[in-house]
Amino acid sequence: MNLHEVRVHPSDENLPREEQLAWKIAEVATDPVEVTPEVTEMVINRMIDNAAVATASITRAPAVAARAQALDHPYAPGSTVFGVDGRFGPEWAAWANGVAVRELDYHDTFLAAEYSHPGDNIPPILAVAQHAGRTGAELVRGIATGYEIQVDLVKAISLHAHKIDHVAHLGPSAAAGIGTLLGLSTETIFQAIGQALHTTTATRQSRKGEISTWKAYAPAFAGKMAVEAVDRAMRGQTSPTPIYEGEDGVIAWLLDGPEARYQVPLPAKGEAKRAILDSYTKEHSAEYQAQAWIDLARKLHNEHPELLDPSAIGRVTIHTSHHTHYVIGSGANDPQKYDPTASRETLDHSIPYIFTVALQDGAWHHVDSYAPERAGRPDTVELWQKVRTVEDPEWTRRYHSTDPAEKAFGGRVEIILTDGSTVTDEIAVADAHPLGARPFARADYVRKFETLADGVVEDAEIARFLALVERLPELDATELPGLTVTARPGLLESIPLPKGLF
Protein backbone atom coordinates (compact mmCIF):
# COMPACT_ATOMS: atom_id res chain seq x y z
CA MET A 1 0.00 0.00 0.00
CA ASN A 2 1.06 3.58 -0.63
CA LEU A 3 0.39 6.20 2.02
CA HIS A 4 -0.80 9.53 0.62
CA GLU A 5 -0.46 12.58 2.86
CA VAL A 6 -3.56 14.72 2.55
CA ARG A 7 -3.69 18.27 3.90
CA VAL A 8 -5.30 21.62 3.18
CA HIS A 9 -3.67 23.73 0.46
CA PRO A 10 -4.40 27.48 0.11
CA SER A 11 -5.77 28.43 -3.28
CA ASP A 12 -2.56 30.22 -4.27
CA GLU A 13 -0.65 26.94 -3.99
CA ASN A 14 -2.66 25.62 -6.95
CA LEU A 15 -2.34 21.95 -5.97
CA PRO A 16 -2.02 19.91 -9.20
CA ARG A 17 -4.93 17.54 -9.64
CA GLU A 18 -2.52 14.61 -9.99
CA GLU A 19 -1.53 15.22 -6.35
CA GLN A 20 -5.12 15.44 -5.06
CA LEU A 21 -6.68 12.56 -3.14
CA ALA A 22 -9.64 12.36 -5.53
CA TRP A 23 -7.21 11.85 -8.42
CA LYS A 24 -5.25 9.20 -6.50
CA ILE A 25 -8.53 7.38 -5.83
CA ALA A 26 -9.43 7.61 -9.51
CA GLU A 27 -6.06 6.12 -10.43
CA VAL A 28 -6.81 3.13 -8.21
CA ALA A 29 -10.18 2.76 -9.93
CA THR A 30 -8.57 2.70 -13.39
CA ASP A 31 -5.77 0.27 -12.48
CA PRO A 32 -6.54 -2.91 -14.50
CA VAL A 33 -5.16 -5.27 -11.83
CA GLU A 34 -6.89 -8.65 -11.69
CA VAL A 35 -9.32 -9.49 -8.88
CA THR A 36 -8.02 -12.35 -6.74
CA PRO A 37 -10.07 -15.55 -6.29
CA GLU A 38 -10.47 -14.83 -2.55
CA VAL A 39 -11.89 -11.40 -3.25
CA THR A 40 -14.23 -12.78 -5.91
CA GLU A 41 -15.57 -15.34 -3.47
CA MET A 42 -16.16 -12.68 -0.84
CA VAL A 43 -17.94 -10.45 -3.37
CA ILE A 44 -20.34 -13.35 -3.99
CA ASN A 45 -20.82 -13.77 -0.23
CA ARG A 46 -21.71 -10.10 0.14
CA MET A 47 -24.07 -10.21 -2.84
CA ILE A 48 -25.90 -13.02 -1.02
CA ASP A 49 -25.78 -11.06 2.24
CA ASN A 50 -27.25 -7.94 0.63
CA ALA A 51 -30.00 -9.94 -1.05
CA ALA A 52 -30.84 -11.57 2.28
CA VAL A 53 -31.31 -8.35 4.23
CA ALA A 54 -33.03 -6.57 1.33
CA THR A 55 -35.51 -9.42 0.99
CA ALA A 56 -36.29 -9.29 4.71
CA SER A 57 -36.99 -5.55 4.40
CA ILE A 58 -39.25 -5.33 1.36
CA THR A 59 -42.49 -5.11 3.39
CA ARG A 60 -41.13 -2.52 5.84
CA ALA A 61 -42.26 1.09 5.48
CA PRO A 62 -38.96 2.72 4.39
CA ALA A 63 -38.35 0.07 1.72
CA VAL A 64 -41.97 0.28 0.54
CA ALA A 65 -41.77 4.06 0.16
CA ALA A 66 -38.41 3.95 -1.65
CA ARG A 67 -39.67 1.21 -3.95
CA ALA A 68 -42.79 3.26 -4.69
CA GLN A 69 -40.55 6.10 -5.86
CA ALA A 70 -38.60 3.74 -8.10
CA LEU A 71 -41.78 2.26 -9.56
CA ASP A 72 -42.71 5.76 -10.72
CA HIS A 73 -39.51 5.85 -12.81
CA PRO A 74 -39.68 2.91 -15.25
CA TYR A 75 -36.86 2.91 -17.76
CA ALA A 76 -35.36 0.81 -20.53
CA PRO A 77 -32.90 -0.83 -20.38
CA GLY A 78 -32.88 0.16 -16.70
CA SER A 79 -32.19 -1.82 -13.54
CA THR A 80 -34.06 -4.22 -11.27
CA VAL A 81 -35.62 -3.50 -7.88
CA PHE A 82 -35.88 -6.12 -5.13
CA GLY A 83 -39.32 -7.65 -4.82
CA VAL A 84 -40.85 -6.64 -8.16
CA ASP A 85 -40.59 -7.32 -11.86
CA GLY A 86 -39.66 -4.63 -14.34
CA ARG A 87 -36.78 -2.27 -15.05
CA PHE A 88 -36.32 1.20 -13.63
CA GLY A 89 -33.97 4.15 -13.82
CA PRO A 90 -30.60 3.02 -12.43
CA GLU A 91 -30.40 5.87 -9.93
CA TRP A 92 -33.86 5.01 -8.60
CA ALA A 93 -33.08 1.29 -8.48
CA ALA A 94 -29.91 2.10 -6.55
CA TRP A 95 -32.06 4.21 -4.22
CA ALA A 96 -34.76 1.60 -3.60
CA ASN A 97 -32.35 -1.30 -3.22
CA GLY A 98 -30.02 0.76 -1.04
CA VAL A 99 -32.84 1.48 1.39
CA ALA A 100 -33.89 -2.18 1.47
CA VAL A 101 -30.32 -3.30 2.14
CA ARG A 102 -29.78 -0.79 4.95
CA GLU A 103 -33.20 -0.82 6.65
CA LEU A 104 -32.55 -3.66 9.11
CA ASP A 105 -28.94 -2.67 9.88
CA TYR A 106 -28.03 -6.27 9.15
CA HIS A 107 -25.28 -6.33 6.49
CA ASP A 108 -21.52 -5.95 6.51
CA THR A 109 -19.35 -3.50 8.43
CA PHE A 110 -15.84 -2.10 8.66
CA LEU A 111 -14.71 -0.05 11.66
CA ALA A 112 -11.51 1.94 12.05
CA ALA A 113 -11.00 5.72 12.28
CA GLU A 114 -14.54 5.93 10.87
CA TYR A 115 -17.51 3.55 10.68
CA SER A 116 -18.94 2.07 7.50
CA HIS A 117 -21.15 -0.51 5.87
CA PRO A 118 -19.21 -1.14 2.65
CA GLY A 119 -21.96 -3.41 1.31
CA ASP A 120 -23.79 -0.12 0.61
CA ASN A 121 -21.58 0.11 -2.49
CA ILE A 122 -23.28 -2.88 -4.09
CA PRO A 123 -26.75 -1.41 -4.92
CA PRO A 124 -25.50 1.53 -7.04
CA ILE A 125 -22.76 -0.46 -8.76
CA LEU A 126 -25.11 -3.36 -9.52
CA ALA A 127 -27.82 -1.00 -10.79
CA VAL A 128 -25.43 0.64 -13.24
CA ALA A 129 -24.07 -2.75 -14.33
CA GLN A 130 -27.57 -3.99 -15.18
CA HIS A 131 -28.51 -0.76 -16.98
CA ALA A 132 -25.25 -0.54 -18.94
CA GLY A 133 -25.23 -4.21 -19.99
CA ARG A 134 -22.05 -5.20 -18.18
CA THR A 135 -20.87 -8.70 -17.30
CA GLY A 136 -20.52 -10.43 -13.97
CA ALA A 137 -16.73 -10.16 -14.14
CA GLU A 138 -16.98 -6.40 -14.68
CA LEU A 139 -19.39 -6.15 -11.75
CA VAL A 140 -16.93 -7.99 -9.51
CA ARG A 141 -14.19 -5.53 -10.50
CA GLY A 142 -16.43 -2.55 -9.73
CA ILE A 143 -17.47 -3.90 -6.33
CA ALA A 144 -13.85 -4.69 -5.41
CA THR A 145 -12.99 -1.04 -6.10
CA GLY A 146 -15.95 0.27 -4.12
CA TYR A 147 -14.96 -1.75 -1.07
CA GLU A 148 -11.29 -0.84 -1.44
CA ILE A 149 -11.85 2.90 -1.55
CA GLN A 150 -14.38 2.99 1.27
CA VAL A 151 -12.29 0.83 3.59
CA ASP A 152 -9.13 2.85 2.84
CA LEU A 153 -10.89 6.15 3.56
CA VAL A 154 -12.39 4.70 6.75
CA LYS A 155 -8.94 3.64 7.94
CA ALA A 156 -7.59 7.17 7.65
CA ILE A 157 -10.25 9.87 8.00
CA SER A 158 -12.65 10.19 10.92
CA LEU A 159 -15.96 11.83 10.05
CA HIS A 160 -17.90 11.14 13.25
CA ALA A 161 -15.41 13.14 15.33
CA HIS A 162 -16.87 16.18 13.58
CA LYS A 163 -20.46 14.88 13.56
CA ILE A 164 -20.38 14.19 9.81
CA ASP A 165 -22.25 11.05 8.75
CA HIS A 166 -20.15 8.11 7.56
CA VAL A 167 -21.81 8.05 4.13
CA ALA A 168 -19.49 10.91 3.13
CA HIS A 169 -16.96 8.13 2.38
CA LEU A 170 -19.57 6.14 0.44
CA GLY A 171 -20.28 8.70 -2.28
CA PRO A 172 -16.64 8.70 -3.50
CA SER A 173 -16.23 4.92 -3.15
CA ALA A 174 -19.40 4.15 -5.12
CA ALA A 175 -18.43 6.65 -7.82
CA ALA A 176 -15.01 5.02 -8.07
CA GLY A 177 -16.56 1.54 -8.24
CA ILE A 178 -18.93 2.60 -11.01
CA GLY A 179 -15.97 4.11 -12.83
CA THR A 180 -14.11 0.79 -12.67
CA LEU A 181 -17.21 -1.09 -13.80
CA LEU A 182 -17.63 1.13 -16.87
CA GLY A 183 -13.94 1.43 -17.69
CA LEU A 184 -14.04 5.23 -17.48
CA SER A 185 -10.97 7.47 -17.69
CA THR A 186 -9.12 8.73 -14.63
CA GLU A 187 -10.27 12.28 -15.46
CA THR A 188 -13.94 11.30 -15.59
CA ILE A 189 -13.79 9.30 -12.36
CA PHE A 190 -11.93 12.17 -10.66
CA GLN A 191 -14.75 14.58 -11.50
CA ALA A 192 -17.41 12.08 -10.39
CA ILE A 193 -15.66 11.50 -7.03
CA GLY A 194 -15.56 15.23 -6.35
CA GLN A 195 -19.24 15.68 -7.11
CA ALA A 196 -20.22 12.61 -5.12
CA LEU A 197 -18.33 13.81 -2.04
CA HIS A 198 -19.60 17.38 -2.36
CA THR A 199 -23.23 16.25 -2.35
CA THR A 200 -23.05 13.64 0.44
CA THR A 201 -21.52 15.45 3.42
CA ALA A 202 -24.33 15.58 6.02
CA THR A 203 -24.45 15.71 9.81
CA ARG A 204 -24.80 12.70 12.10
CA GLN A 205 -28.10 13.91 13.53
CA SER A 206 -29.64 11.06 11.56
CA ARG A 207 -28.07 8.75 14.18
CA LYS A 208 -28.73 10.84 17.28
CA GLY A 209 -31.65 11.08 19.70
CA GLU A 210 -34.88 9.75 18.22
CA ILE A 211 -33.45 8.01 15.17
CA SER A 212 -35.74 8.27 12.16
CA THR A 213 -36.34 6.25 9.02
CA TRP A 214 -33.76 8.44 7.27
CA LYS A 215 -31.06 6.17 8.73
CA ALA A 216 -31.98 3.65 6.04
CA TYR A 217 -32.09 6.32 3.34
CA ALA A 218 -28.74 8.02 4.05
CA PRO A 219 -26.50 5.46 2.27
CA ALA A 220 -29.06 4.99 -0.51
CA PHE A 221 -28.93 8.75 -1.09
CA ALA A 222 -25.13 8.59 -1.33
CA GLY A 223 -25.38 5.74 -3.84
CA LYS A 224 -27.95 7.63 -5.89
CA MET A 225 -25.74 10.73 -5.85
CA ALA A 226 -22.80 8.62 -7.03
CA VAL A 227 -24.81 7.35 -10.02
CA GLU A 228 -25.85 10.88 -10.92
CA ALA A 229 -22.30 12.24 -10.40
CA VAL A 230 -20.91 9.64 -12.81
CA ASP A 231 -23.59 10.53 -15.35
CA ARG A 232 -22.72 14.21 -15.18
CA ALA A 233 -18.97 13.56 -15.33
CA MET A 234 -19.47 11.38 -18.42
CA ARG A 235 -21.23 14.37 -19.99
CA GLY A 236 -18.14 16.50 -19.38
CA GLN A 237 -19.25 18.30 -16.21
CA THR A 238 -16.68 19.10 -13.54
CA SER A 239 -16.53 19.15 -9.75
CA PRO A 240 -15.31 21.46 -6.95
CA THR A 241 -11.52 21.13 -6.96
CA PRO A 242 -9.63 20.29 -4.84
CA ILE A 243 -12.58 18.81 -3.01
CA TYR A 244 -10.65 17.41 -0.04
CA GLU A 245 -7.65 19.75 0.13
CA GLY A 246 -9.12 23.13 -0.87
CA GLU A 247 -8.98 26.00 1.62
CA ASP A 248 -12.78 25.99 1.66
CA GLY A 249 -12.99 22.23 1.13
CA VAL A 250 -14.13 19.27 3.20
CA ILE A 251 -11.06 18.92 5.41
CA ALA A 252 -10.72 22.64 6.14
CA TRP A 253 -14.30 23.28 7.22
CA LEU A 254 -16.00 19.97 7.95
CA LEU A 255 -13.19 17.84 9.38
CA ASP A 256 -9.92 18.53 11.25
CA GLY A 257 -9.31 22.00 9.84
CA PRO A 258 -6.55 23.88 8.00
CA GLU A 259 -3.70 22.24 9.92
CA ALA A 260 -4.97 18.67 9.49
CA ARG A 261 -2.89 15.92 7.96
CA TYR A 262 -4.10 12.45 7.05
CA GLN A 263 -2.22 9.41 5.81
CA VAL A 264 -4.57 7.62 3.41
CA PRO A 265 -3.54 4.09 2.36
CA LEU A 266 -4.26 3.15 -1.25
CA PRO A 267 -3.07 0.15 -3.30
CA ALA A 268 0.03 0.73 -5.36
CA LYS A 269 -0.22 0.35 -9.12
CA GLY A 270 -0.60 -3.35 -9.90
CA GLU A 271 -1.54 -4.21 -6.30
CA ALA A 272 -4.73 -6.23 -5.88
CA LYS A 273 -7.74 -4.60 -4.25
CA ARG A 274 -8.26 -6.80 -1.19
CA ALA A 275 -10.02 -4.51 1.29
CA ILE A 276 -13.29 -6.46 1.19
CA LEU A 277 -11.45 -9.20 3.08
CA ASP A 278 -10.95 -6.82 6.00
CA SER A 279 -14.70 -6.28 6.42
CA TYR A 280 -17.15 -8.52 8.29
CA THR A 281 -20.86 -9.16 8.28
CA LYS A 282 -23.51 -9.45 10.96
CA GLU A 283 -25.15 -12.52 12.38
CA HIS A 284 -27.68 -10.31 14.19
CA SER A 285 -29.83 -7.41 13.05
CA ALA A 286 -28.32 -4.68 15.22
CA GLU A 287 -25.59 -2.04 15.13
CA TYR A 288 -22.20 -3.75 14.74
CA GLN A 289 -20.90 -2.92 18.22
CA ALA A 290 -23.91 -4.82 19.55
CA GLN A 291 -22.98 -8.07 17.78
CA ALA A 292 -20.48 -9.29 20.37
CA TRP A 293 -22.74 -8.21 23.24
CA ILE A 294 -25.63 -10.25 21.86
CA ASP A 295 -23.36 -13.28 21.70
CA LEU A 296 -22.13 -12.72 25.26
CA ALA A 297 -25.68 -12.18 26.53
CA ARG A 298 -26.78 -15.46 24.92
CA LYS A 299 -23.89 -17.22 26.64
CA LEU A 300 -24.78 -15.74 30.03
CA HIS A 301 -28.45 -16.68 29.51
CA ASN A 302 -27.45 -20.33 29.15
CA GLU A 303 -24.80 -20.39 31.89
CA HIS A 304 -26.49 -18.28 34.59
CA PRO A 305 -30.24 -18.89 34.94
CA GLU A 306 -30.24 -16.70 38.05
CA LEU A 307 -29.87 -13.68 35.75
CA LEU A 308 -33.31 -14.21 34.23
CA ASP A 309 -35.02 -12.67 37.27
CA PRO A 310 -34.61 -8.87 36.99
CA SER A 311 -35.39 -8.42 40.69
CA ALA A 312 -32.27 -10.48 41.48
CA ILE A 313 -30.03 -8.01 39.62
CA GLY A 314 -28.89 -4.80 41.25
CA ARG A 315 -26.73 -3.28 38.55
CA VAL A 316 -25.26 -4.15 35.12
CA THR A 317 -22.14 -2.27 34.00
CA ILE A 318 -20.76 -2.74 30.52
CA HIS A 319 -17.09 -1.73 30.22
CA THR A 320 -16.43 -1.03 26.57
CA SER A 321 -14.87 1.22 23.95
CA HIS A 322 -15.37 4.95 23.52
CA HIS A 323 -17.51 4.43 20.42
CA THR A 324 -19.82 1.85 21.97
CA HIS A 325 -20.26 3.95 25.11
CA TYR A 326 -20.87 7.28 23.41
CA VAL A 327 -22.78 6.18 20.30
CA ILE A 328 -24.98 3.26 21.37
CA GLY A 329 -24.42 3.30 25.12
CA SER A 330 -25.49 5.46 28.04
CA GLY A 331 -22.67 7.88 27.24
CA ALA A 332 -24.76 9.20 24.35
CA ASN A 333 -27.01 10.86 26.97
CA ASP A 334 -30.03 9.99 24.83
CA PRO A 335 -33.04 9.27 27.07
CA GLN A 336 -34.63 7.60 24.04
CA LYS A 337 -32.18 4.70 24.48
CA TYR A 338 -34.15 3.77 27.62
CA ASP A 339 -37.62 4.50 26.24
CA PRO A 340 -39.89 1.45 25.70
CA THR A 341 -41.83 3.42 23.07
CA ALA A 342 -38.73 4.39 21.07
CA SER A 343 -38.48 3.62 17.35
CA ARG A 344 -36.86 0.46 16.08
CA GLU A 345 -34.01 2.57 14.69
CA THR A 346 -33.39 3.98 18.18
CA LEU A 347 -33.53 0.59 19.92
CA ASP A 348 -31.11 -0.74 17.32
CA HIS A 349 -28.66 1.88 18.66
CA SER A 350 -29.25 1.13 22.36
CA ILE A 351 -26.84 -1.40 23.81
CA PRO A 352 -28.67 -1.32 27.19
CA TYR A 353 -31.84 -2.49 25.44
CA ILE A 354 -30.14 -5.02 23.19
CA PHE A 355 -28.11 -6.62 25.99
CA THR A 356 -31.21 -6.85 28.19
CA VAL A 357 -33.37 -8.60 25.59
CA ALA A 358 -30.61 -10.97 24.45
CA LEU A 359 -29.89 -11.87 28.08
CA GLN A 360 -33.53 -12.59 28.84
CA ASP A 361 -34.33 -14.43 25.61
CA GLY A 362 -31.01 -16.14 24.89
CA ALA A 363 -31.59 -15.23 21.24
CA TRP A 364 -32.00 -12.31 18.87
CA HIS A 365 -34.54 -11.88 16.06
CA HIS A 366 -34.60 -9.14 13.43
CA VAL A 367 -38.31 -8.47 14.00
CA ASP A 368 -39.46 -10.00 17.28
CA SER A 369 -36.66 -8.52 19.39
CA TYR A 370 -37.75 -5.00 18.40
CA ALA A 371 -41.52 -5.46 18.61
CA PRO A 372 -43.29 -2.81 20.73
CA GLU A 373 -44.75 -5.50 22.99
CA ARG A 374 -41.24 -6.91 23.49
CA ALA A 375 -39.73 -3.52 24.31
CA GLY A 376 -42.55 -2.72 26.72
CA ARG A 377 -42.49 -5.96 28.71
CA PRO A 378 -42.35 -4.95 32.39
CA ASP A 379 -39.54 -7.31 33.41
CA THR A 380 -37.49 -6.09 30.43
CA VAL A 381 -38.04 -2.43 31.30
CA GLU A 382 -37.08 -3.14 34.92
CA LEU A 383 -33.74 -4.71 33.99
CA TRP A 384 -33.09 -2.33 31.09
CA GLN A 385 -33.06 0.67 33.44
CA LYS A 386 -30.29 -0.98 35.48
CA VAL A 387 -27.86 -1.28 32.55
CA ARG A 388 -25.17 1.35 32.08
CA THR A 389 -22.05 1.56 29.93
CA VAL A 390 -18.68 3.10 30.80
CA GLU A 391 -15.66 3.72 28.63
CA ASP A 392 -12.69 1.48 29.40
CA PRO A 393 -9.39 2.85 27.99
CA GLU A 394 -8.08 -0.62 27.24
CA TRP A 395 -11.12 -1.57 25.20
CA THR A 396 -10.88 1.78 23.38
CA ARG A 397 -7.23 1.06 22.62
CA ARG A 398 -8.09 -2.37 21.28
CA TYR A 399 -10.94 -0.93 19.21
CA HIS A 400 -8.43 1.30 17.41
CA SER A 401 -5.63 -1.26 17.20
CA THR A 402 -4.30 -2.01 13.73
CA ASP A 403 -3.26 -5.49 14.85
CA PRO A 404 -6.06 -7.88 13.79
CA ALA A 405 -5.25 -10.18 16.70
CA GLU A 406 -5.83 -7.33 19.17
CA LYS A 407 -8.66 -5.40 17.53
CA ALA A 408 -11.86 -5.77 19.52
CA PHE A 409 -15.46 -4.55 19.40
CA GLY A 410 -16.68 -5.94 22.70
CA GLY A 411 -15.73 -5.50 26.33
CA ARG A 412 -16.39 -6.76 29.83
CA VAL A 413 -19.70 -6.93 31.70
CA GLU A 414 -20.07 -6.84 35.46
CA ILE A 415 -23.43 -7.88 36.88
CA ILE A 416 -23.94 -7.28 40.60
CA LEU A 417 -26.79 -9.30 42.09
CA THR A 418 -28.91 -8.17 45.01
CA ASP A 419 -27.48 -10.98 47.17
CA GLY A 420 -24.03 -9.41 46.80
CA SER A 421 -22.61 -11.92 44.35
CA THR A 422 -21.12 -10.84 41.02
CA VAL A 423 -21.10 -12.34 37.53
CA THR A 424 -18.42 -11.08 35.14
CA ASP A 425 -17.49 -12.11 31.61
CA GLU A 426 -15.99 -10.58 28.51
CA ILE A 427 -15.90 -10.92 24.74
CA ALA A 428 -13.58 -9.33 22.18
CA VAL A 429 -15.30 -9.97 18.87
CA ALA A 430 -18.61 -11.37 17.68
CA ASP A 431 -18.88 -15.10 17.07
CA ALA A 432 -19.35 -14.46 13.32
CA HIS A 433 -16.25 -12.23 13.05
CA PRO A 434 -13.28 -13.73 11.11
CA LEU A 435 -11.51 -14.13 14.48
CA GLY A 436 -14.65 -15.13 16.36
CA ALA A 437 -15.89 -18.47 17.67
CA ARG A 438 -17.84 -19.27 14.47
CA PRO A 439 -16.56 -17.16 11.53
CA PHE A 440 -19.10 -16.69 8.74
CA ALA A 441 -18.48 -18.82 5.65
CA ARG A 442 -20.46 -19.36 2.42
CA ALA A 443 -22.86 -21.79 4.08
CA ASP A 444 -23.68 -19.16 6.72
CA TYR A 445 -24.41 -16.51 4.11
CA VAL A 446 -26.66 -18.95 2.26
CA ARG A 447 -28.45 -19.93 5.47
CA LYS A 448 -28.95 -16.26 6.35
CA PHE A 449 -30.53 -15.64 2.95
CA GLU A 450 -32.75 -18.71 3.12
CA THR A 451 -33.89 -17.80 6.65
CA LEU A 452 -34.70 -14.17 5.87
CA ALA A 453 -36.33 -15.00 2.53
CA ASP A 454 -38.59 -17.65 4.03
CA GLY A 455 -42.20 -16.61 3.54
CA VAL A 456 -41.16 -13.62 1.42
CA VAL A 457 -39.80 -15.40 -1.65
CA GLU A 458 -40.80 -18.78 -3.03
CA ASP A 459 -38.31 -21.63 -2.62
CA ALA A 460 -37.72 -21.90 -6.36
CA GLU A 461 -36.84 -18.21 -6.53
CA ILE A 462 -34.39 -18.58 -3.64
CA ALA A 463 -32.71 -21.50 -5.39
CA ARG A 464 -32.59 -19.63 -8.71
CA PHE A 465 -30.89 -16.60 -7.20
CA LEU A 466 -28.32 -18.64 -5.31
CA ALA A 467 -27.44 -20.73 -8.36
CA LEU A 468 -26.99 -17.57 -10.42
CA VAL A 469 -24.97 -15.50 -7.97
CA GLU A 470 -22.55 -18.34 -7.31
CA ARG A 471 -21.62 -18.16 -11.02
CA LEU A 472 -21.11 -14.39 -10.79
CA PRO A 473 -17.73 -14.12 -12.58
CA GLU A 474 -19.11 -16.12 -15.52
CA LEU A 475 -22.36 -14.20 -16.03
CA ASP A 476 -22.90 -12.36 -19.30
CA ALA A 477 -24.86 -9.14 -19.70
CA THR A 478 -28.13 -10.95 -20.37
CA GLU A 479 -27.91 -12.81 -17.04
CA LEU A 480 -27.05 -9.87 -14.79
CA PRO A 481 -30.67 -8.65 -14.46
CA GLY A 482 -31.37 -11.96 -12.72
CA LEU A 483 -29.42 -10.77 -9.67
CA THR A 484 -32.59 -9.83 -7.82
CA VAL A 485 -35.56 -11.64 -6.32
CA THR A 486 -39.31 -11.33 -6.88
CA ALA A 487 -41.62 -11.56 -3.88
CA ARG A 488 -44.09 -14.41 -3.63
CA PRO A 489 -47.41 -13.74 -5.40
CA GLY A 490 -49.78 -11.54 -3.43
CA LEU A 491 -47.28 -10.35 -0.83
CA LEU A 492 -46.58 -6.85 -2.13
CA GLU A 493 -49.96 -6.38 -3.77
CA SER A 494 -51.52 -6.28 -0.30
CA ILE A 495 -49.32 -3.34 0.79
CA PRO A 496 -50.58 0.13 -0.19
CA LEU A 497 -47.95 2.28 -1.90
CA PRO A 498 -47.59 5.76 -0.43
CA LYS A 499 -48.01 8.56 -2.96
CA GLY A 500 -45.80 11.63 -3.24
CA LEU A 501 -44.99 14.02 -6.07
CA PHE A 502 -44.44 11.48 -8.83
From TrEMBL:
The keyword Lyase applies. It catalyses: (2S,3S)-2-methylcitrate = 2-methyl-cis-aconitate + H2O. Keywords: Lyase. Its EC number is 4.2.1.79. It comes from the Bacteria. Pfam families: MmgE_PrpD_C, MmgE_PrpD_N. One of its GO terms (molecular function) is 2-methylcitrate dehydratase activity. Residues 284-471 form the MmgE/PrpD C-terminal domain. Residues 19-262 form the MmgE/PrpD N-terminal domain. Belongs to the PrpD family. Monomer. This is 2-methylcitrate dehydratase. The lineage of its organism: Bacteria, Bacillati, Actinomycetota, Actinomycetes, Micrococcales.
